[in-house]
Amino acid sequence: MSILDRFLLTDHVAVVTGAGRGLGAATAVALAEAGADVVISARTAAQLKEVASRIEAAGRRALVVPADLSDLAAVAGLAERAHAEFGHLDVVVNNVGGTIPNAFLDTDVEYLEDAFRFNVSTAHALSAAAVPLMLSDADDLSRQKAIVSITSMMGRTAARGYLAYGTAKAALAHWTRLAATDLSPRIRVNGIAVGSVLTSALEFVAGDAAMRSQMEDEAELGRLGEPEEIAAAVLYLASAAGAFITGKILEVDGGLQRPNLDLGLPPLWGGTVPAGN
One Pfam family for this entry, by name (predicted)? Predict the structure, then answer.
């Protein structure tokens, strides 16, 4: 096997959530270009169809499953859909997630629990449904068995307004380490801590020239990332190129150490400052 062959996923089957645009779309196409058939899911059917056309242009098959991926039953059902359509399941990419920044006193318990559910529970629901199907033919060493979760550098650092998001992403990172221990050696489980990447999710700050400049300055490489750069990291972890890696969080963040982005949130509080003596 040549070194480039290690990056191939010939005749693998992958599930990618949040695949309608951004990181998920780039990842689904990258896996297809490496040889995988891909189940893609997100809320918007039109976006998925466009991604499916790119997968098919790469010579692979796409199964489009529009769904509300905050519904744990819906996200778990993707595993069986993949196995029923293609006959096996090899790679799961947990990409669904995200939480809007919020001031501390506007982050009530429900907001925090919603962030956890959307970023962590969805990953667990899909992975738990996928694992028995992946194990059913895991002795076939011709295909990699891997779970890759998209977490965030905010899970290892701090910035004002990211309490719910950062807590959830930190939990997803540690879920990755624990799941890797449980599933070793038959299924590898890794994550990617993503930095500031130019996707639609970042439009609310990247569209402001001053804020974009600030984000670029905070990264050692002096720029925002591209979705394809995250997709390449997913391919590395999912393929035989990363066959000796499990339980790790790969930081793909342009060298970002600690963000200090001013989101315009009120200092300290937000909401109404409580009265006191």
Answer: adh_short_C2
